[in-house]
Amino acid sequence: MSNLQKKTDVILIGAGIMSATLGSLLKELAPEWDIKVFEKLSKPGEESSNEWNNAGTGHAALCELNYTSEKEDGSIDISKAISINEQFQVSRQFWSYLVNSNLIRNPENFIRPIPHMSLVHGEDNVAFLKKRFKALSSIPLFQGMEYSDSPEKLKKWVPLIMEGRTSNEPIAATKIDSGTDVNFGALTRMLFDHLKSNDVEIHYNQSVEDIKRSSDGCWDVKVINLVTGQVEHHRSKFVFIGGGGGSLPLLQKTGIPESKHIGGFPVSGLFMVCNNPEVVAQHHAKVYGKAKVGAPPMSVPHLDTRYIDNKKSLLFGPFAGFSPKFLKTGSNLDLIGSVKPNNVLTMLAAGAKEMSLTKYLIQQVMLTKEQRLEELREFIPNAKAEDWDLVVAGQRVQVIKDTAAGKGTLQFGTEVITSADGSVAALLGASPGASTAVNVMLEIINKSFKEQMLVWEPKIKEMIPSYGVSLMENPDLLHKVHTSTARTLGLSEREPVFS
Ligand SMILES: Cc1cc2nc3c(=O)[nH]c(=O)nc-3n(C[C@H](O)[C@H](O)[C@H](O)COP(=O)(O)OP(=O)(O)OC[C@H]3O[C@@H](n4cnc5c(N)ncnc54)[C@H](O)[C@@H]3O)c2cc1C
């Protein structure tokens, strides 16, 4: 049975953090607009945004070594770290606005303060970390960062990691107390509760099967009800494809020129989780290491204190792996189904170039529990098998596209694809992901609603005082927004002093 529904202003596909964020921004900017959401699962935030499917790091480049690279002259390129930190400040401001306006409550249910640390071993890595620390710590965005290569000091910072460590290899760490643990699953659910109580129609168990442009320039979205089998067609002036790993196939269905010559490379993930309260109590930080030579950036190992459902636990990983699925709940045919005549050469070029990555990922899938424990013991020398279980994390679909670097180049960042007229936008890629959702969705709003921007800008500035301003160049404003968001979000344990 097919059924044509009335036209709506906005359709959001997928109920993850991205749609939740875009919907919440649009509800503030244009409260009178009709918004519909279609989600194939029965609840919001069940795929990558779920708290057990990602690492919950509020990515602000405080500890992730892959956001700062060493240049040929030996100096450290910190431009990406600055950009990611600025984007996280945007998220903090929007979340604070929502809390201050009573649109969401109890921020401790989705964000907690936790020190962010980088930890490295070996002379070269220690030298790199020292240079990185020097480059970052003088910048207001990273103020409060400390460095130490003293084992005594490190024992105080991370006793669990230092206990039982016998090697004489040099070891060093940086620590900054203004880091965060973010429960993106809880935040997604809160935002959808808020949207639901503000007349947004949210349809669960409804899978979007097709998106076609209709003669009046609107988009016709074909939706199948997975419970009843009923097919409906919904029309909208604007469609956001926020399907996570499922975005690429939907983008391809739009047929827009911008969707061509793009492919996806799925990477699966596993975490080890510690539920022994005695071990959990001995660690209080997110500690990021350095990716092994040849390993992709998304497999940087880290040991994280997490707060999920008011319970503290430890997560270690992720162990990357290969699976042809684009979503955790996806199909083994996803990868092959995404190969189209327009992207087959791009995909083949990537396949040829990334043989070593594919081999690496397959090797990772084959690791035994004991081999994974060996990797964990590089962080916690005394780790015991019985304290740790494996959990399957979310899928990340890395974008493959033709760039100046060559045909079929694998991208590790987030990509926004928008049609020339802005009427359809899709979010692809994974990193830095949920932490930068607000900035990325503002980018989409800017491209897709150019005509409204003049009217909307004052409201955006009310919600995000630093909108359009570089905090790096405005330490006074940084101090103001950092302190006020820390207070609102309950992150004020130890506020850094800005100079
Ligand atoms: C292992 C791992 C670790 C990560 N760690 C971090 C981290 O520490 N910090 C961070 O900021 N980010 C992290 N990320 C990235 C972050 O999780 C993602 O960027 C973010 O959750 C993506 O949100 P989304 O809304 O785009 O996708 P999702 O949360 O995946 O939501 C997409 C939704 O769309 C639905 N959908 C798909 N296709 C259809 C369709 N055809 N019809 C209807 N519905 C559909 C899906 O069911 C799903 O609910 C991590 C990701 C992974 C996998």
UniProtKB/TrEMBL annotation:
InterPro entries: FAD/NAD-bd_sf, MQO. Pathway: Carbohydrate metabolism; tricarboxylic acid cycle; oxaloacetate from (S)-malate (quinone route): step 1/1. It catalyses: (S)-malate + a quinone = a quinol + oxaloacetate. Pfam families: Mqo (PF06039). It comes from the Bacteria. Its cofactor is FAD. Belongs to the MQO family. This is Probable malate:quinone oxidoreductase. The lineage of its organism: Bacteria, Bacillati, Bacillota, Bacilli, Bacillales. The gene is mqo.
